[in-house]
Amino acid sequence: MFSTILSGDLPKGKILRLLLLVIVLGLAFAPFLFPGVRALNTAATICIFIVLAASYDLLIGYTGVVSFAHTMFFGIGAYGVAITLDKAVPGWGGVLIGTGLGLAVAIVLAFVIGLFSLRVKEIFFAMVTLAVASAFLILASQLSGLTGGEDGLTYKLPRLLSPAFKLIDEKVLGVRINGRLLNYYLVFWGALGLFLVMLRVVNSPFGRVLQAIRENQFRAEALGYRTVVYRTIANCLAAAIAALAGVLMALWHKYTGPDTTLSLTIMIDILLMVVIGGMGSLYGAAIGATLFVLAKNYLQALMGDAADGLSAVPMLAELVHPDRWMLWLGVLFILSVYFFPTGVVGKLRRSEPGTQNN
Questions:
Q1: Which distant-in-sequence residues (6+ apart) come within 8 Å of 173 by Cβ?
Q2: Is residue 356 part of a domain?
């Protein structure tokens, strides 16, 4: 049964399976295992970025396409819902219309970019996507009447997803069953469904052609595959999934702004997630996103505790001061690349003889 759900792509290796099982169960039961607003927000963010990182891995890991416009599609999905709910149609109708508009715009833009740019060499395509993404960020920041400008948009969600909604009055295992909890499980199941769809894609004949193009584009063309067509379709598919991840982000945060969806910082974060987990593996994207979001959310707090514990040693206390958390995050990334050059999944595959790509 699990093999069918995972499109025949069962993770190879006991350690990898255990790690992925911990992630899935931890996210599935996060509201009950880790009560608190911050923990729930971290879990929802992990779900969203697993989808976003995995969709980017469809391009860079499976197809060999380097794009810096992925956050643009993420932002388009988020802004589609935000603008519709804020300016036009409230409630579930606004969510559906905004999702459809965001998907349509993301796919059309991805098609145009792919059609005109994927024929050029990789570095030039990367520069084109960076220019388009930067232009879109500036546009979103300046169209204050539509997008809210730098301040972004704050909007009302359907009542079913609001904290004021109560499904039942009594708590279950100490957790109130309200709209916030329902919103979390909408994000969780939405992210899980999108991840399984991507697993199906990469394990289909289409996905194997993408991998062949990544390995040797000229050989793939010699075999009769039109690489530009396949790469354009992959670009549109990745853009659509990124837009849907943006929809989940918009529903969870009830706020959409340039800094939360369109910034280059998010693009760099996505790239780090894919590299840490291991390119060319959707499971690697899931592991990388989980590790990165946890480090980003809790490293500063852990360093604060360490600084308090080392208060008797002034030099060490200053070294681990919470204000230096970005420095140590960079150090951790350098160490991860040095000790795991093929990512966490690549390292686990080599550590267990007999395992294959997953």
A1: 32
A2: no
Q: Residue 358 falls within a domain, yes or no?
A: no
Calculate the CA 182 to chain-centre distance: 21
When divided into structural domains, the chain yields a total of 1
Task: Judge whether 128 and 117 are in contact, CB under 8 Å.
Answer: yes
Residue 26: domain span: 2-351
Domain annotation covers residue 199: yes
Which helix (H) or strand (E) covers residue 301, if one does?
A: helix 282-309
Write the CATH number for 22: 1.10.3470
Q: Is 357 inside any structural domain?
A: no
Q: Is 149 left (phi over 0), alpha (psi -120 to 50) or beta?
A: left
Within a 10 A sphere around the Cβ of 14, how many other Cβ atoms? Answer: 11
Strand partners, 154: 255
> Quick one: which H or E segment has residue 4?
helix 2-5
End-to-end CA distance of the chain: give it in Å, rounded. Answer: 18
Position 130, amino acid: L
Averages of pLDDT over runs of 10 residues in the chain (358 residues) are: 72 84 93 87 95 93 87 94 88 91 94 75 80 90 87 89 80 82 94 94 90 85 84 92 95 91 90 88 92 85 75 73 76 79 77 53
